[in-house]
Specification:
This protein is α/β, with parallel strands linked by helices. The protein folds into 2 domains: 224 residues, UDP-n-acetylglucosamine1-carboxyvinyl-transferase, Chain, CATH 3.65.10; 217 residues, Enolpyruvate transferase domain (UDP-n-acetylglucosamine1-carboxyvinyl-transferase, Chain). It contains 14 helices and 24 strands. The strands form 6 sheets. Strands 22-23-1-24 form a 4-stranded mixed sheet. The longest helix has 13 residues. The structure holds uridine-diphosphate-2(N-acetylglucosaminyl) butyric acid. The site of uridine-diphosphate-2(N-acetylglucosaminyl) butyric acid has 26 residues, from α1, α5, α6 and α12.
């Protein structure tokens, strides 16, 4: 099983490109099931989760290729679906990745039927799909649970456009909005999705669906209006840049008091993050003419210890839960006490216990954590247990004195392609090595990592 050895502290300095976004690419790939014509997606990096979804799409009868994977922005995925194929997404594949649920809406709309295994909880708590099912039922789908499978059937004359309220106790749902949107584009009549998620990845899906012939307005707002069409066609679409990787890189510059120049930087989706990072003392200097806010070039600099801050994670455009762990890493070294409240996943704090091994000081109060800034972190062996928590440990390792070994980096590989190469290019002393091939919890057998495929056993929860 792979681990990272990091010798710190280091000061990152150099240039990077922001690749295409995993969380945009996965639902876009699933949406390709809505047509039998070829859908071409550019800037899709070879993340482990992309490999898992390709396996799932193939098992659903689609022809899928992924080329040019060494391109730093990501390769090209070509998908051609077959509506006559079996619409069953089996547990063996769904259990490797929660985002597998994104095939439910497209399959139901395009094939009239879907059987998708119910994803379990994940490393940071329960991840229900009740709102996905509520939205699809509102379109007149019949949905039953049978042996852990979601069995969904459309009426013989197709799904019906309806007015649907999609808000839940924790606010809107990104994946639920995307699933219902994909079903509504082929439903008869008008659908209004109220309390839709406004996340940029939903807007990217709207752009793809529109290029396929769908009629949708309202993206980026809580009300999506969809006028159903009879069929969709193929198209070529460039996936939006990854706002979470860009944010991770910005925080890497901050924690190492370094300088990172990012191209293909999606400023449009990161204003809430920039605001927090500027408040702690990070500088953003844009090097282009601001013609395209989605793809900019920026120099991010931090030349001193950061200030403490109070932050609450929120749906977009607020500070994203997917950068909470990375932000905590830099706040461990800030001047003063910070308070970070997690409003999306109240249990998403596995990384704090590992950071404590490096000398960080936290006080947890329910969904909030008080971070007491310490003068320095010290290298230690630490263990990743989810994707963003792993990135947080790598960032802490870059700033810590001495050697940090981050084990179980298969979590990191789900959403960062060879992060060690990325930061080594900027001067970090970081290497990947095989720590212990016999770890019983390593699910790497289920994950396709192009660089070094491995084999081993399963894992208890459905990964993020
Ligand atoms: N929720 C419900 N019922 C539902 C669906 C969601 O109560 O039917 C709750 C969730 O428990 C959570 C909140 O609503 O408290 C938001 O969940 P959401 O459905 O928006 O999350 P998701 O679509 O499953 C995506 C990202 C996550 C990211 C969240 C929030 C993908 C593949 N995943 O998940 O990304 O944290 O949105 O922004 O797009 C990650 O990349 O590390 C990651 C976990």
């Amino acid at each position: 099983m792979d681990a990272f050895r990091i010798k710190g502290p280091c000061k990152l300095d150099g240039e990077l490109e922001v690749p295409g976004a995993k969380n945009a690419a996965l639902p876009l790939m699933a949406a390709a099931l809505l047509t039998e014509e070829e859908v071409v997606l550019q800037d899709v990096p070879a993340y482990a989760d992309v490999g898992n979804l390709i396996r799932l799409l193939r098992s659903l009868g689609a022809k899928v290729t992924h080329d040019d994977v060494d391109n730093p922005l990501g390769g090209t995925v070509r998908i051609q679906s077959d509506h006559a194929a079996d619409p069953t997404a089996p547990y063996e594949i769904v259990k490797t990745m929660r985002a597998s649920i994104s095939v439910l809406g497209p399959l139901l709309a395009a094939r009239g039927r879907a059987s998708v295994s119910l994803p379990g909880g994940c490393a940071f708590g329960a991840r229900p799909v009740d709102l996905h099912l509520h939205g699809l039922r509102s379109l007149d789908a019949k949905i039953e649970l049978d042996g852990g499978q979601i069995e969904a059937t459309a009426p013989a004359d197709g799904l019906k456009g309806r007015i649907i309220f999609m808000g839940g106790p924790n606010g809107p749902t990104v994946g639920g909005t995307q699933n219902v949107l994909c079903a509504a584009v082929l439903a008869k009549g008008r659908t209004i999705i109220e309390s839709a998620a406004c996340e940029p990845e939903v807007s990217d899906l709207v752009r793809l669906l529109r290029a396929m012939g769908a009629k949708i307005t309202g993206e980026g707002s809580p009300r999506l209006v969809v006028d159903g069409v009879e069929r969709l066609h193929g198209c070529t679409h460039r996936v939006m840049p990854d706002r979470i990787i860009a944010g991770t890189d910005a925080i890497a510059a901050a924690i190492t008091c370094g300088r990172v120049e990012l191209s293909n930087y999606p400023q449009d989706s990161l204003l809430g993050v920039e605001d927090v990072l500027q408040r702690i003392g990070v500088r953003f200097e844009f090097l282009d003419d601001a013609k395209d806010l989605l793809r900019r070039t920026v120099r991010i600099t931090a030349d001193r210890r950061q200030e403490a801050v109070e932050v609450t994670t929120q749906p977009w455009p607020g500070f994203p839960t997917d950068l909470q762990a990375q932000l905590l890493a830099v706040l461990t070294l800030a001047d003063g006490n910070s308070v970070v409240t997690e409003k999306i996943y109240s249990e998403r704090f596995n990384h704090t216990a590992e950071l404590e091994r490096m000398g960080a000081v936290f006080h947890r109060i329910g969904p909030a954590v008080v971070v007491r800034g310490v003068p320095r972190l010290n290298g230690a062996p630490v263990m990743a247990s989810d994707l963003r928590g792993s990135a947080c440990l790598v960032l802490a390792g870059l700033a810590a004195y001495g050697e940090t070994v981050v084990s179980r980096v298969y979590h990191l590989d789900r959403g960062y392609h060879r992060l060690e190469d990325r930061y080594r290019r900027l001067g970090a002393d970081i290497e990947r090595f095989n720590a212990d091939a016999s770890d019983p919890d390593d699910p790497a057998a289920a994950i396709e990592i192009p660089a070094k495929p491995k084999k081993s056993a399963g894992k208890k929860t459905t990964p993020t």
